[in-house]
Write a structure and sequence with these properties.
The protein is of the alpha/beta class. The protein is built from 26 helices and eight strands. The chain folds into four domains: 4-177, Rossmann fold, CATH 3.40.50.300; 181-337, no CATH class; 349-472; 511-601, no CATH class. The strands form two sheets. The protein has a five-stranded parallel beta sheet with strand order 2-3-4-1-5, with helices on both faces. It has a three-stranded antiparallel beta sheet with strand order 6-7-8, with helices on one face. Strand 3, helix 6 and strand 4 (146-151) form a beta-alpha-beta unit. It is elongated.
Amino acid sequence: MANSVAKGALKSYLKMKNPGYAILVDAPWGAGKTHFVKEVCFESDGTNNVRYVSLNGASDDLAFRRALLKDSYEASLAERGAIFGNILSRKLRLGDLGNLARDFLEERLIAGLPETLIFDDIERSSIDPQQLLGLINDFVEHKGKRVILLVHSEEHDHKEAFLNRKEKLVGRTLHIEADLDAALPNFLAAIDHSRGRKFFQEHEKLIGSVFEQAGHQNLRLLRNALRDCSLVLDRIDEDLFSAKEPMARFVSTFLAFSMALAKGEITTQVLDCRDSWKIAVSGEVEGDLKGLNKLFKRHEGADIHAHSGSVLSMALCELLFVRGHAETEALNELLKSTGQFNQQDENPLWKRIAHWGDFAWDELKELIAQGEDYLFEASPVEAGPYLHIADGLLRIESYGGLQTSRKELVAKILQRVEVLARSGGLPPAKMGRRFGWGARGRHFSFGGYGCDANDDFLDIMNSMSAAQLRIYEGKKEELAKKLAECFGSDLSRFMLKISYTQDETTYYHVPIFHEIDVDGFAQSCLEYLESGQGNALGQVFEQLADRHNNNEEWQPEIEWFYVLREKLEKGAIHHSKLARAQLELFFRFYWKFASPEEVKIG
């Protein structure tokens, strides 16, 4: 049990009469030392025989004495009596008799203090260490009290002076560590009965792992992160919790970011750089990304680095940690849009194979058989897990653990990728850019785990990305049709599909309108104009034009929009002169498209 030695020593001390020395408990902020000491003292002495004193902000002898008597009913009466007495005595020109009476009463109160005194926040007092220790020593040496000092010595402004002078007072120093097993039930009890609390109760091991990886031993940071995370989990759709591994990864990532931000290890500004591959490098990183890189290295299995396989997208990260809130609809939509939240076990096959070195020998044969079955028999498959399993088997082969040769294994995987692509067993590259897994050069990443690819695995990665791109190209006509249907039915929802997102999950970044039937799109535009929705349509047109740049890949779409303009002009002329006039006004305000000639020149 954590801190059992310290607890035993403290209990023994509390049994002493006039011990002649103080106990010092030294632990980091948030490690739970105040709770630990209070619990042991109240258990041994009872609440009436223990006085807790916080010296936070105490700057002189008077402040020290006020801290000793703070929250005492008698002391508050003495203070009010002093005020009244001073007023009366000044009128009688007798000086501040109220202060004298208060000081006399306070001395009596101090003489009657309980036998056990706890002095907390030693490092937060600005009283000179020698003077402060002298004040406290009076209770040990002359009044025979049991005294316990609580300090985080590493944060003391006069650390050396304090440590050098404490020996006369302190007879024993106890160091405690954060006791998560003892603290977590209290943290969860403070959270309302909810979906979040239920998740945490079922995933105490996950919480412990994230806290251990964080390395700061600050239970207060964890408590606050759990509270914030619980409020988010309460608003997530019930069916998303069936995706056990992605949900666990989301919670791990949330807790890691929440604690790091609260501790000041990173700032909200650097979250805008989560998609940088510099975060995921194994070497040292300098500058603004240093904090994120450290976080990435510490929290294995969390999506610190944002790529197309992340459960915490750039957009959702901004809402939760920069703006401080995500509306329920947006929260669930952004989680679903990752493509990760499909029903699955918390320890799926790809994750088990990534940790194949941890398995018992008699389990490895079955694990490898399951991996081979997924690679060569399963359909459909998810690209990220497929690549993790392929990499895992290649690594096992490199250690001589497979019957198949490396050359045969690679050829068989490459062949299977092509079969899956032709048979519809692979997902398309979303927007022609997002594969559902991350790759930069030779680095592969998915599910909070990554690796640097050798030549064979690089070939497999390239084959997978090329296949997913081909599938996307084959589905563009279908995607364009759905986009046109959305435009004709709901401009607000359509606007979301063409608005900028940092993680490139919309059609803002992708030319696709040239795949849409221009006559049908023109008819929808004319209907919006005819029904008086010109301003809403105009905002859509401005957003559509904002997508374009001088890159030649946009050329077919820009030419399509000028064909659309001709269709709109013909439709308006056919309707009436007023409709034609209103369309010209609409174009003057909202037509911001570059001409095809400008793009060619650019």
